[in-house]
Design goal:
The complex is a heterodimer of chains A (443) and B (393). By secondary structure, chain A is of the alpha+beta class. Chain A is built from 16 helices and ten strands. Classes of the chains: A alpha+beta (443), B alpha+beta (393). At the A-B interface, helix 11, strand 9, helix 13, helix 14 and helix 15 of A face strand 8, helix 9, helix 10, helix 11 and helix 12 of B.
Amino acid sequence: MKQSVEERIEKLKMKNATEMLNIFGRLLVDNREMSLWEHDTKTLTWGVRRWRRKALKFAREYIRPLAVKADLDPHGYDPKPILAAAARNGFQTLMLVPPLGTASMLPYFRGTAFQIAVIGEEFATECGGLALLLLAHNLGVAPLLLSGSFRNYFLHLIPLYFKSFVLGKPDCMAFAITEPGAGSDVEETEGGAKAKLVTTAKRTPDRKGYIINGRKCFISDGAIADKITLYAKIEEEGIESWTCFLLERGMPGFSLGRSERKMGQRAADATELILDNVFIPNSNIVGKVRAGWANNRNVLNYSRPVVGAMALGHGRGAFERCLAFCRNTYLGPKRLIEYQDVQLELADMAISLWSARSMIWHSCKQFRCYQSASASAKVFASDTAFKVCNQAMELMGDQGYLHKNGVERAWRDSRLTQIYEGTNQINRLALFEHHLSTDFGTM
Amino acid sequence: MEGEPVASICAEDMEHYRDLARQYARKSINPILEGEHSDGNLSLLPEKLKTAFEIGIAATPDESLSGCQYGIWGGATGETGLMPSLLLLSTIAETCGGVAMCLHAQGLATHLILQAKKKLPLTPVRAGLCLQEGLYPPFLGTIMAPDQDAPARITTVAEQKNNRYTINGSKSFVYSMHDPDAYVVFARVGEQWGCFLVGAQEKDVARTDAGVRTGLRACVVDHVDFDHVDIPLDARIDDGDARGLVVHAMSLNWAGMAAIAVGIAKGASVASRRYAAERYQGGRQIEEHPAVKMLIAGAEASTATAETSLLALRDGNLTSWNNLQRSAAVKLSVMDLCARAVTDCLQTFGGYGYMEDYGMEKRLRDVTVLKSAAGSATYLKQLIFDIEKEGLR
């Protein structure tokens, strides 16, 4: 009997065509019906897989309901409950393994930043600002961990984590390097040597600590942080004297300046810190005196893949919302998703995101993050995310720029990832700084 | 739909238009943008737009106002070509894309009203254009036959009963100044297009704000519903088939939007040059850094290319298919070039570019809305291909 074209198409579909293979052939075909997300998740080790699923659930339960309000009215919502919820779930203590922290043991030693990158993508998929609010804390903690100082671990890091995860009373941390006259300078070697820094630490005559004066700007979580890892040069010396200090809220002389009005990631503040004769005791020096520059650069190596993952999340958020829109919206008698030109565009977006994810996962799957891989992942993922967000907006026509559809929010959020943690230009140069005297390949 | 191309204007006139726009921007738009508002203090806008009517930049069908002929897309466009309006829009957009879009939307509706060869029952001051339904403007198949699903038919219908038309339907993404007095509405009349002037205050006309938007916030964007709106027969603008006016409206709309995008990109380039000369990083001005040079030079090259494409439209015949195709191509390429230029310029500011204080993020938001508005890249490519395929000229 002659079959219709529809019947023949149905028969030719991979799932049905597989039936023609023998049993062993069929075993070698993956016909499982699952999302790309699920496919990717199954490639992860058990510990990371668990954190990815947990982060997805948390993002949908806690971040999604708050995302619109936090973006439209960043000063009108209280960030403390979501910070507390994240801490209770162990997301704020992922820089250490049990019993001190919550990171899964084996994956941690294979890639210290990997678990944070994985949850960063999930959080940012729902809201870039709230993702930054939660993840900037880890950035603030990183100098303590990377200082290599057991004194810092016992005095600050372990109590911080204990209070957060065990007692459920999290302290929020922030990381302060940027100064009004030195943004990219402090993220690159040559610029650092010539940077005009204003934040200065002067040893007290009794040698019990340092007096700090100066200003820091664009500090994520600066307005809500309980403790801040802050870098200052020693008196009249250059950036090579940079030292990291642990600044605590309430220290006399420390106050907040203006909170910036940003295009996106609005749920997280970017605040100016004003330091007017702030006394910091010796016990609050992070690592060694004058070791701040190395510490800062290494923190950036660990944080850049996470920023790339957040960018990836913004792109994925835009993609997922655009996909849902195309499924639900009709153009004439057909749904948008049934048009091939729309499918082509969506496929391009999915491929871009997939490649960015592969690069990020590859870049932080090692115990110590290194500069070239981190910088490359950050640049590629942030450029990709911005491109994908643009594609999503365009595909939705005039609906794309309406706030209610959520795609333009992801677009605004993604643009910042091309700027912070070093502009993408600085990050590109970081590759050559690392490989100036070596080759990229094997030749 | 063929017609004679119009004459170009001289360099002196061009400078006059630019100067007029610069003065308006300096005296009226800059005060709006002062202070801590992400898109300027928009409560000042109605007063500043009134000034635009007074000095003749804003077109209006009201002949007692000077902009009727020589405002943006005013009645004299047929004689002078598009150049004056393109220059005015582009120069104003260097300061604020949203205000330029307001003037463009007003001019577009005015221009269509002025195409009527007869006296219309009302003479609005402010007007908006209702053409689009749903996501995109009409595709070629729908322009040719509004009652066909090609891919989506026009659902706003005008039916003639006795001496009146009854209009039913919904239009989306209607750009206008605040509180328009009337709408120019494209609707299906049987198998053909009709174009009507409908009072915005009619009781069965309902406006709904499109909601919070990414950019161009100085401009009002509404969805407008017509629920059995009765209008007199002489409120019909066209002479029996408004297909030519549809083509006209779409061409002009894209030309104006492209001019605004070029203006925004030029404004961004100037701002980034200035910032790069003032800002020090690594002990030297950032304009000395190769990364910044590359960004600014690339942006300026993109802007120059976009402007060249735009100016190719200045003498076209607005009702020809050929011109519609060219306008679509210009919108497609100019938006891409300008958006790239603006984002590169923003990048030179580093973190400051992302903050509202420097105005760069507003430029990026505005140009991005222009990209998606009134025909996305996918839609435009489809239209360009279809016009060529059908051999329309």
